[in-house]
Amino acid sequence: MTTYNHPSELTTEEVVPYFLRFARELLSQPVSSRKVVEEFVQFYRSCRVVGAPIEDGYDADTFCIEWCRVDLKEQQISIRRTVHAVDALPEYSEFDDDAFEMVITLSFGPTDDEASCALEVSTIEELDSELETLLKNSLIAKLLEETPADTSAFVGGAG
User: Fold this and answer.
1) Is residue 47 assigned to a domain?
2) Which long-range contacts (CB under 8 A, 24 or more apart) does 50-55 make?
3) What is the pTM of this model?
4) Number of domains comprising the chain
């Protein structure tokens, strides 16, 4: 299995095609959900987006992972990175208007569980302190060992 050596910094113009190549390669072969989560976390941890600060109280580059039930019964784990490139925004723009999300969704079989759980962080320190607890949640922990029935990756607007 490939281990990715992500660049330490990319511009907003570079990060989208990079993410799509990374996701396509990661999801092109059967892979455990745990591996997908670990690789996405590493992408967030090691690759900063120019103009999207995560220090000094900014939440311009956030990481989110959530488990939920969709389409009546199907389970999903959604991993999302939302970027607000504040340094690249036109003067007239609102903070949320030009945000974009890079998303990987892992789909699984049916469940009767209606609960959901999520974690959204805006710093690496928050990620380090809270991710392990979420991944031990019984809803997510059992799926981390499975190969998803279906996967998708996309980039879209978040505003």
Assistant:
1) yes
2) 50/9, 50/10, 50/11, 50/12, 50/85, 50/87, 50/88, 51/11, 51/12, 51/85, 51/86, 51/87, 51/88, 52/12, 52/83, 52/84, 52/85, 52/86, 52/87, 53/86, 54/122, 54/123, 54/124, 55/123
3) 0.87
4) 1
